[in-house]
Each structure stands twice: as C-alpha cells, then as structure tokens.
Amino acid sequence: MSQETILIGLAGVLASASPLIFAVIGETLSERAGVINLSMNGTILLAAMGGFAVAYTTDNIVLGFLGGMLIGALVALVVAFASITLQQSQVAVGFVLALTCRDLSYFLGNPYMGLPGPRLQALPIPVLSDIPVIGQLFFRHDVITYISFIAIFLAWLWIFRTRPGLMLQGIGEKPAAAYIRGANVNVMRYVYTIIGGALIGLAGPAFSLATRAGWMGTISGLDGFGWIALSITIFGGWNPVRGALGAYLFAFLQWLGLVLQPVLTQVPSQVLQVAPFPLMILTLLLVNIGNAEWVERTLAAMPESARKIFSKILRAMRTSPPAALGVPFERD
Amino acid sequence: MNVELKNIHKHFGSVHANKGINLNIPTGTIQGILGENGAGKSTLMKILSGFIQPDSGSEVFLDGKPVVMHSPADAIKYGVGMLHQDPLDFPPMKLLDNFLLGLPGGIFPNRKEATQDFSLLAREYGFTFDPENYVDSLTVGERQQLEIMRLLFLGARVFILDEPTTGISAGQKEKLFATLKKFPEQAMTVIFVSHKLEDVESLCDRVAVLRGGELVGETQPPYVTSKLVEMMFGKEITLGERQPVQTGGVVLSMKNVSLEDVRMKVKNVSLDVRAGEVIGLAGMEGSGQGMFIRACSGLMRPVGGRIELKDKDLTGKSYHTFKRAGVNFLPAARLEEGLVPGLNLTEHFILAEEPKGLFIDRMMGQQLAEERIKSFNIRGKPHSTVESLSGGNQQRAELALLQSPLSLVLLEHPTRGLDIESVIYIWSKLKDRCKTDGAAIIFISSDLEEILQYSDRVLVFFNGKVSAPLDAGKTTVEELGQLIGGKGWADKGEAHD
Amino acid sequence: MIKDRFGNLAYQLAALLLAFGVVSLILISVDASPSETYKNIFKGSFGEMRKFAEVLVAFVPLLLVTAGLLVTFSSGLWNIGVEGQVVLGAIATTWVYRLLLESGLPPGLIIALAILGGMVGGAIWAALAGILKVFGGVNEIFGGLGLNFVSTALTIYLIFGPWKRPGVASMSGTVPFPDEFSLPLLANLRISPWALVIAFVGIVVIYFLLQGTYFGLRLKAVGKNFRAAYLLGIPTWQYAMYSFLICGALAGAAGAVQVAAVYHRLIPSISSGYGYLGLMVAMLINYQALWAVPVALFFAALNIGSIQLPIVMKLDSSLSGVLQGVLVLFVLLAAGVRQKFGRKAQ
To answer: Which of A85, B63, B337, C74 has a 20 to 30 A CA-CA distance from B407?
Structure first.
C-alpha cells in the first residue's frame, strides 16, 4: 500500500469519526451533569433522517444540521423531564426513547428513502492543506469535520478550564456541594441535558449530510452507533479528549477491517466490520474492574506494600463515573 | 458580626425540631452549641446557613439587620459560612479546582492568580497545601482546613462548624482550635456545634445547650461539667429495677481485635461475652462502636486479632458464616438495611425461615405471620408492606425475624424513635430470647438511660478509644455522659479483660 | 386501596389515550387517516386465520423473552443483553442440528436436543453478562449491549464462514435442514402448536417461580433491597447469576424456536429484535407476569398487522414500533406524574 493511500485512509478515519465525536461529547456533557441519556441510538437515527429531510426540502444544508440538533434537544428534553422532574428511571425512559426514535425515523423517513440529497463538500483550507502529511490528514475535510476538531477542544476547555465547567463537574459529582456553592442544580441539569442532546442530534446530520450522505432507512447502517458512542463515553472517562481518542480508535479499527480484508480472505468482511465491538467490551472490563467488590476484598487482604502497587495500577486504568450519575437531587 | 436568632421554629411534618429558640451571639465570640443527637442543633444551624427556611414568624438578625437567606449561597453573601461534618467538597478534583469552584468571576478563572491567592491564604493560616494535589488524598482534617480557607476567601464573617472534631486527629484538632481562636480578633464570630464537652469547654467563650428542640440554658466559663451534662441529658433520671445477671458460658470472645476504616482505627479490643449477658455500647455516633458491632457480625473484617464464637474461630469469615453460627444483626436503618420495602410481613417471615421444599406453603406463611404478629404485638396485617408500618412496628417485625436457635444478637439503636411502650415491649422480648436461647446481646444506643437500664456491662467509645467494660449497676448517667464527651478517661483507661 | 387501584387505572387509561393521540397526530402529519391505519393493522393481524397464525408466530418468542426478563427484572437487573441471548440460542440450536442431522437419531429427539441446546446457549451468553457484572464491575447494560454486537458478529461469521452454503455464502443464511427436523406446523398455517406449548410452559413456570416459590421470593428481595437481602442471609450475587441463567435459557428457547419452527436455518437477523421488544413488554406490564400474555399478543399483533401497511397505505411498517414505544413511554411518564403529583393532591 502506498503512503498516499494510507494518508487518504487515515484522513478518512478522522472524518468518519466526526459524528461519533459529537455524540460522545454530547453524552459526556449530559452525564457530567448527572443525567444518562440512553436514547442516543434512536436520537442519532431520528436526527439523521430529520436533518436530511429538512436539508432536502429546504435545499439548505445548514438548516438540515440545525434541524438535527433541534431533534436531539427535544428528545433530551423528554429524558430530562422524566428523570429530573418526575424522578423516574433514566435507564427505562432512555431505552424506550432509543427504540421509539429509531422506529419513528424509519417511519417518517420512508418518503425520503434513497433520494439524492445535498451533501457537505470538502473545503480544503488554503495554504495549510498544502503542508505535506499534516495538510492531507487534517486540512482537506468538510466543515463539519473541522467543527468536530474544534468541538473536542472547546468541550475540554469548558469542562476543565472554565468556571461554569467546574460547576458542571460539581453538579454531577456532589450536587449538595455544588448547591452550597450557588448552583441551581436541577436547572443546570436541564440545560446540560438539552445541550448534550443537541450535540448528540448533530451526529445525525453529520452522517446523513456528510460522511454517509443520504437516507436509506434500515439499510443506512447507522443503527448501533449510538450504543457505541455510549461505550466510548465510558471508555473516555467522561473526558472529551479521551473520548475523542476512543472514537478515532473505533473508526481506525473499522478502516483497518476494510484494509485487511484482501489479506485475511478467510475472515468474512462483515466480521471485520464488527471486530471493534468485542474490543470495546474488553476495554470496558479493564476500566471497570477496579470497581468490582471482589477486587476490593482481595486488595484489602493483601499486605500493605502489594496493596499500594495494585491499587495504583487499578486507579490509573479505572474511570469513575460522576458520583451522582443517575441520582436525583432534592434540596432537603 | 453579631448574630441574633429570635423565636426560631421549624416543623418537619409532625416533628417540631426547633421550638422557639432565642439566642444572641455577640461579635467576636466563639459560641458553643451543645446537645445530644436529635436535640435540634443541626436544624438550627441549617436555618442559619440558609440550607432550610424556618417557619414563618422566625427571625434572623445579622448586625441588627433582619435577613432572609434562601440558600447557602445566599447566606455566604451575607457573610455566613458553614463547615459541614462531612466536608462538602469534591474528592476527585484538584485542590485548586475545588477552591475555584463557586468563586465569583468571569468565565475563565485566572489560575495563576488563584494559585497565588490560595498559597497566600494557606500561609496566613499556617496550612500547607499543594494546589495541584487531589482532594481525595487529604485527611478529613485537611479537607476541613481547605473548606475554611474557601469560606474565608468568600468573605465569611460568621463560621458555623458542625461537629468538626469527629474523625480528625488530636494534632489536627489543636491546629483547628488555634485557627478558630484567631478569628475573634478579626471581629469574626464562630458557632461551634458539638456534643463533645471537652472540646466545647476548651474552645468556647459561651455555651448554649439544646434539648428536645428547645434552648435549655446558657453558661459562661468557668464551666461545671456536671451542670452541662445535666442540661444536655435532662434532670430526671429514673432507673427501673435492674435484673441480676445470670450468665452462662462464653459466647463471643474477642482477642486483641483491631479495626480500621478510612476515618478511624479501633485498636486491640479484648472482650468475653457470656450467654445471657447484655453489653451496651455507648458513645456519640461515629466513635467506633459501629465498626465494633459490624466486626462482631462478620460484616467488617478485623485487621488484627481473633474473633471466636462458642470456641469456634470465625476470624475473617463472612457475614453469612456468622449468621449460620447463630449471630443475628439488626441494623439501625430499618428500611434501608433491615427490611425489604415492597414485600409484606408474611413474605418477610417466609424469607427468614429455612425453605421447606420448592414451593411456599401460603397457608403456612399466613399462619406463621398471624402467629408472629400476635406474639410480637405488631400493629399490621400479614399482607401489610413493611414500609406502611410505623417505626415501632417495623422494629417489632425485625425482632420477629430473628432466627432460632440464636447465640448472639447485635442491635444498632434498637429503640430509636420509638414510643416508650414499644421500648419496654421490645426489651422484654429481647431479654426473653436471652433466657430461652442462652443468647447474648450487644447493642448500640445513644440513649444513656437505656444503656444503663438494660445492659449488664457497658463499653464506652470515644474517637476510636474503647473503655474497659463498666458495671452498668455502678455507673451513673453523668459518668457516662462525661466519658462519651471525652472526659475522665485517665482513670477509666483502656484496660481490657 | 381500591381507590388507589382505580386511580392507577385512570392514569394508565390516560396514558393509553395520549399514546394513541400522539400516534394519530404523527399519522395525520404524513397525510394518513388514523382510523384507516388502525383498521388495517387490525385486519392484518386478526382479519383471517392465516394472519392470526403469523401473529402467534411472533407471539411465541416475544412471550418467552418477556418471561425471562420478568426474572431478571425481579432481581433488579436490566438484562439488555437478552437480544444476544436470543441469537446465541439460535446459534446453539443450529449447531446441535448440524451435529446430529446425519446421526440417524429419531427426528423428534434431535429437535428436543436442539431446543435444549438453544436454551443452554442462551444461558451461557447470559452468564457472560452476569460474570462481567459480578466479577468485572461492568454494568449489565453495557456488558449486555457489547455482547449483543458480538452475537451479531458471530452469526454473520458463521453464515459467511464455517457454516456457509455450498457454493456461495449469502445473507439468506445457512442451508435449511429437511422439514422432518422442524417442529410440526398446523395444517396450512405457519404456526407450530409445539412452539405455543413451549411459550406457555415458559410463562407458566415463571409465573409460579416468581409467585409461589422460595426462590422467587428471595429473588424479589434481592431486587428490591440488595443490602437487606444480604443481611437476611440470602446469597445475593449467586441469585443475580441464577436470574441471568434463567432469563438466558428462556431467551435461548426463543431463538431455538425461531430456528426449529420458523426459519429452519440460521439467518443474520434471527432474533428480529424480539429481545428489545420483550424489554418493552416487561416495562409496559410493570413486571407483572399475569399481564404478559395479553400484552405480548397485542404487541405481536401490532408487528404483524403493520406488515401490510407499505402495500395497502404506503406507510412504513415501523409504525408498530412507534406505537409500541409511545405507549410504553406514556405509561412510564404517567407513573411518574402519578407518583409526583398524585401524592401531593392527597
């Protein structure tokens, strides 16, 4: 394989990960505030269909993207209402929405099946795109991919370097402590769930108007990405940068599956396409094992010196969710 | 800052937690608030710190001006800051982020400036902190210091400290007190809430005592400990007829047992408990007695020593092994740990029985339930869910779940929140079990009268220290009160049998 | 108490009406007549015997999956991996068939062994989710989702790899086995009475397991209060594992029936989403076994009834999923509204 092909392939990996990146960032914001938005798989499909339909009907690609975001925000509003106001199980409501939105996208998207719609064009950045290697990798994408790069940085900056972002961490970690520091916990949870939902929604048109342009109903191949994004959020330890790396790793593995296919002829291509999924479980196991009870018990039984080393290793691997994830907050 | 509370009332449903409290705290004083658990201290402090709002008609004045505080954030704007017993900070964050969180300012905090402020403040008060370190690597005492710094930086003029000396080392306590003693010079007011007589006596300029939601008295130094104890626990102390001890063989034997958790260490306890004997564990909440009783039940693994039950070594065995050996544990949190909300009484009784075959005999279950309901005098029906029962009836249901035969019963606050009739009933049932099964009882209670009334011997816990077993017949409420407040330990020592 | 029950019924009726209202609005938005649509769904499911038989074909796996999920929900677990457990049941059944087809054993025995194999396969897959949860600290939702993807991958690998049709492998699945090795069907209909028997045995066993046995009661205690159950002497994590195994076996039976009675081979989408749909049924019936049969039948009827919508009305058949989802959503929301505001009103 020539260097040229590899570069184009890797650039493709960066672009094809962009929808996942929006979804992971959206979910990260929502979960950082303490709300699990389990509806992601359905939301992305509905937003992909809706975004495509809007862009097709209005012939305005920007409206398509906004439409997708609006859909994501509305679904998130239902999640927020059910979990924050009604204090119902976030898992139950999110799961029902995941299925319902998926079917709704197939139902409402029926008239748009296979229509030739608008697609975001690549927009090489002058000068920068001519830099060898780097230019090819990073500066010959469409706008939404550039936005995904920026979004990673902005989300990281917001969560870890701004005052409101610190408060966001506080709300998901220990709402009572955030409350005595002046946070209106439940209002902020609504806000972040809805903003997170809009970003998850953005993943839809990022598929249907860019990386996998068009709407093909059940054969769009988008079903499942939401669940993947959910795993990547955990893998990423609720950090947008680590989450983005997870998304790139996933896209890279999928690309590797395609590339290796001619070499590994006895392995069906469909299997290579799903190979990243078991790897995802393995990583989840690695980041979670420190939370298991028997590990703690074994650690407690170890001599002091060994205990220190092992807990250090586990601590480095482990990602701990925001402590108040899924826990309603009521001030006394 | 001068703080004045006028006619503070607070109801929680039918519970009247504060009953018209009036208190004036002059600028620059360290005011102690004493009271046992449930006296209304924390309700009063939550009101003053904006966490909850008092009933209408209650008034709070700061420097003579009436104020209404809607939230803790509101309170700090008025200059009232509260240090909670469990520091309300963010363990996974860096010290600097934890410090910055909630400080006013623009979107992007100036981290360099904040680091400088942080270090300056730390130096001024003699604390040593690395702002890049993580909060969860600190001890509780250090986390308190961190919170104090944060409140100072926010401009607090009134400091409320809720049981701040629980779970911190003696050295840290000294440091905390040294810090607090500097505050009056800067015209700041300190409100120190505690049940520890020693701490209050050594630190406070004035002391107010709460009991049953009312302010029962105020004193100034020199303090007379016996008078403080009397105010805290009430004057009228009636001890009923005590039963003479008739004990059998050793049921539980602890040899040099040491326990450890993140907050506390209990070291080298040795104790033999005999059949028929009742051991009361006294001490303010979180003094180590909870760890002790969990170790007796197998829920907590000792870090050293041996635990034997009827000469069988059970050290390090699981709770279920203890249970099979005849040890039953009734936790204080009835609906959280003791019973299963959503299941009814019949189902609970069936669960506690050894299964006979695959299918539940409903008739048998119904009979069993009716029988137990009658013999334990539970006000409820076989199909009543446990959460629909009153506290006293829940406790009776828990007693009815005790297995048979039984060697050792461990109880946490067996009669907390119960009416006197239930208390008497429950203890008569327990004593019956002692007699019929030859079981021993170990129980925790914050009610000193109950401890002296029903125990044969008493262990007092204070900050992880355990007293030698005291003969309940020869001990007074006042003595116990002093011991759990950390006084008079020199002559009681830490001897063991 | 009685008043309470009526209150609950009122909320559920309101949820039902709202759900149909919302779906009707969706229909109107695509210029379809709601009444016409509902009529067509009804005709497509109960209109003739042949169609009702199809409903029953969908009803069997759905009921089995729901029965299994009642067990995991009882012990407080969200077994989202049930979808993969159905798939593994189908794979294991196919594997047993492939092993025994040439063995000369009587077909009846082979069928029985194949279905049993399917139950074991589903149980093993569920045990994996359980092990990940109990020993790996991986939440059963994420472990289960991952295993679902792996099961799909495994199916495709088998169909295109070791088990591919002679000549060319295709999405149409593995080679069908001869008719005498499948569960016998009713004359001229696609439903096998044996499959119905298996489904009903499944739900009845689960009903009695949960209502009448020590095991079921202990399981409920674990689900409602893990800590108290432990203190009452119940080996809690073992019970969590048992409930995974039972649910997996029932889901595996659903997959086995799909192979042994419906498709006679392994196909890529062998589970048809019955695992996820079963979760919806379990939520809608609020985990009460008694209601599983009518609601599973209703959901199966919606699925089958909407199949002809594309032909008759040019509407996508996913309408059934929308209707089911909206219904469950409103029932959940109604329960929340009732808890939050109903109590205040009293």
So the answer is: B337
Q: What is the CATH number of domain B250-326+403-492?
A: 3.40.50.300
Q: How far apart are CA A286 and CA C146, in angstroms?
A: 14
Q: Which two tokens stand for residue B298?
A: 């197998």
- Closest C-alpha among B117, A113, B440, A263 to residue C314: A113
Question: What b/e string do you get for A29-48 counting C-beta neighbours within 10 Å, with b at 16 or more?
Answer: bbbbbbbbbbbbbbbbbbbb
Are A173 and B105 a contacting pair at CB < 8 A?
no
pLDDT tens track, chain B, 497 positions: 899 999 999 988 777 889 999 999 999 999 999 887 678 888 899 999 998 899 988 999 999 999 999 999 999 999 999 998 788 999 889 999 999 998 988 899 999 999 999 999 999 888 889 999 889 888 778 888 899 999 999 999 999 998 887 767 777 888 899 999 999 998 999 999 987 788 888 899 999 999 888 999 899 988 888 888 888 877 544 445 555 566 778 899 999 999 887 667 888 899 999 988 999 999 877 788 999 999 999 998 888 899 999 889 998 889 999 999 999 999 988 888 889 999 999 999 999 888 888 888 888 899 999 999 998 888 889 999 998 887 778 888 998 998 888 899 999 988 876 766 778 888 888 888 888 888 999 999 877 878 888 899 999 998 888 998 998 888 888 888 888 878 777 765 554 44
Question: Alpha-carbon distance B273 to B327, whole Å?
Answer: 13
Minimal CA separation from B58 to chain A, in Å? 19
Q: Where are the alpha helices (DSSP H) in B205-251?
A: 225-233
| Nearest CB to C217; choose among B337, B338, B360 | B360
ipTM of the complex: 0.92
Residues 163-182 of C with CB under 8 A from A: 169
Contact residues, chain A, for C279 at CB < 8 Å: 95
Q: Do residues C258 and C91 make contact, with C-beta atoms less than 8 angstroms apart?
A: no
**What is the Rg, in whole angstroms, of the alpha carbon atoms belonging to chain A?**
21
Domain boundary assignment for chain B = 3-233, 250-326+403-492
Angle of helix A90-108 relative to helix C319-337, nearest 10 degrees, comes to: 150
pTM for the structure as a whole: 0.90
Closest by Cβ to A173, choosing from B46, B72, B92 = B92
* Domains along chain A with CATH numbers: 3-264 (1.10.3470)
Q: How many CB pairs under 8 A join B and C?
A: 59
Q: Distance, in angstroms, between A289 CA and closest chain C CA? A: 5
Residue A166 contacts B where some CB pair is shorter than 8 Å:
yes
Place of tokens 């004493």: B34
Chain C interface residues (partner B, CB cutoff 8 A): 208, 212-215, 217-218, 220-221, 224-225, 227-235
Q: Does A97 touch chain C (CB under 8 A)?
A: yes
AA identity, residue C221: A
